[in-house]
Every structure is written in C-alpha cells, then in structure tokens.
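Could you help me review a protein record that somebody else here produced? Do not assume that whoever made the record got everything right. The record follows directly below this note.
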Amino acid sequence: MKITRLNIYPVKSLGGIPLDQAELGVRGLAHDRQWMVVDDIGRFVTQRQLPHMARIVVRLDDEALVLSHPGTAPLRIPLQRDDQPRLPVYVWDDQCQALDEGEEAAAWLGAVLGDYQGSGLRLVRFAPDQRRNVEPHYLAPGEQAHTAFADGYPFLVVSEASLAEVNRVLETKGVAPVPMARFRPSIVVDAAEPFAENGWGELSLHEGAVRLGLRKPCQRCKITTVDQATGEIAVPGEPLRTLVQMNTRLAPGGYFGQNAILLAGEGSTLAVGDELSASAQP
C-alpha cells in the first residue's frame, strides 16, 4: 500500500494545496489549518455557511501565506511575525487564543466574501503556545493528542478505493462522480478494498519510525456537496445523502475516512509513493 496524495489546507475551509512531500507534526502536516476565518465574536466560519470560500486560492512561498481571488489583488501574510494582538476564538465547543492578522486581512476578506450575518470577518492564526486537545474518549489509554484549527483531529486518512465505491453508487443514481477534493483529506492511500480504513487501528511506514493511530470515523457535512473549484452546490445533498445510505455498519450519518493522530515520527517527512502498512483495530 502506498501514499497517493498529500494535501494541506493552511486556512480552514479555504483552498487546499497538493504536495509531493510534507513534514509531520503532532498538530498535523506542516502549515495545515494554522489559520482560520472568524466572525466578530471569534466564532469559526466555514464553507458550511459560505460555500464560496472554496474559491479562495491558497499558496505558500518562503516568506508568506498568499490568498488569491478573481478580480482582487492577492493578500500576503508573513509567515514569521509575532506582533499580532490576541483574541479568543471558538471551534465547535473549544475556545483557544489566536493571533489576529489585522485590518488589511479583514478588509480583504470582506471584499471577497461580503457581509456575514451583519458581521465583519477576520483572519486569525493559531497561537503557537496554545494546545487544543483531541477529544480524549476516542483515544487509547494513556494517549494524548492535540490539533490546531482542524475540526477535531490533526490528520484525515482516506483511500482511493473508498472514493471509487462512492462514485460507483453515485453513478447508479445518475449523479456525476465527485473528486477527492470534496472530502479534503490530508493523506490518501491506495487500499484495495473500499472502506478498508474503517477497520484499521494503525498505519506505519519508514520501518515503523512513523506511526499514525486511526481513532474515529469522520462524519461528513454539507461541505462534501460544495464544488471546491467553483464554490457552488450543483446537486444539493450529494454525495452526503449517498454516504448516509452506504454507512450501514457505522453509526447513523454519512461517514468517509478516518481521523488520525501521530503516535511516532514528529519531524519526519511523508512523500507521495511512500509504502505503508496497516494493522487492524485491537
């Protein structure tokens, strides 16, 4: 089994960046979900509320995070800075401190995304001294894990075969197949059996120097219905409705992929083509 794709999403719910290789950290692949858009009370805003967030293109260069959108000059945010004011922000039920990227970034988001429920929007960065813990009741005894602005876990692992099976079912319903981008994974593998990842407890590679623990099936939301290139919803409810119908062995809901944590290998590099092995859940 091999890694077929690696992706990061530096700003939560904006465009992703495909990579040939990525450095592993306990909070995810380097630069993943280190920024987030919030409203004027610090509550996170995503494509669930503003699907056209998908149209903001994100890239990283040696010095800056760069956001681009048609008809607007790009926004550059220096990677190395420590002069931002702090503010409390909220991701689901978690509160943590973030660094406000300032008025220029807020104005840029307002120009691109418009008003949000009468609120201004701001860009914030995860404060490096913060620790946002993963929900402990899904971890093995003695395990600890934390993440940045991801919904709940530092990694999301899915397989090519699972996507192929979802698309096979969609086509029987007369619905066009969807690309992997709809599911915004960080690590994609070429497992032979659809949904094999639901039975894995651990992935290992580099002769065991890197180990990922798969800890919770990923329940999907309406973001899967958003075209990540256009920000539009061409077929309302799909593929989420199909996932709900297919998930007969899991809890009620639409699931795709497994949330994972880093067990060993901080600072190591993953690359597309790396071989890995899976062990079953205990």
